[in-house]
Amino acid sequence: MKNTILLGSGIDLLLGLFLFVYLADKKSFGIRILVSYMSVIAVFLGVFSFFQLDPIKIVSGVFRLGAINEYRNVVFHKDGKTASVSVFDNYDPQTKEKVSRTIATNGKPDAAIAVVDNVDLSMK
């Protein structure tokens, strides 16, 4: 997923730079274009190096709830060609104990199981 987002942003940056060069005044072409190319490359490499996708935000379902649930732990996350599948544990805000495990597709919960007496639900 990260590579797809970066590829799309790289194409967008290159298209913008091409339009900038194409529409630029041909008299002041030299250093301005060189600085533009270098800044685009620096921004792209910076984003590629330091940008991390947070699994909690990916599986948050914020479009449904309006907020990110802070009491989750992502157990599994896999991006496929047509869907993203996640498994996460939900915790009680007061006791901080695990109360359920949920499987979600594209951020929307599909199934859940309640945890009784803190039985280990590790995916082995």
Keywords:
124 residues; 4-stranded antiparallel beta sheet; alpha+beta
Detailed description of the structure:
This protein is α+β, with helices and mostly antiparallel strands. It has two domains: 2-50; 55-114, no CATH class. Helix content is 41%, strand content 25%. It has four helices and four strands; from the N terminus they run ααααββββ. The protein has helices at 2-23, 30-50, 55-58, 62-65; strands spanning 72-79, 84-91, 98-105, 108-114. A four-stranded antiparallel β-sheet has the order 1-2-3-4, with no helix packed on it. Strand 1 (72-79) and strand 2 form a beta hairpin. Helix 1 runs antiparallel to helix 2. The two termini are 25 Å apart. The model has no long low-confidence stretch (mean pLDDT 76).
The neighbouring-strand order within the major sheet is 1-2-3-4
Element string (H = helix, E = strand): HHHHEEEE
Global Rg: 22 Å
Strand content is 25-35%
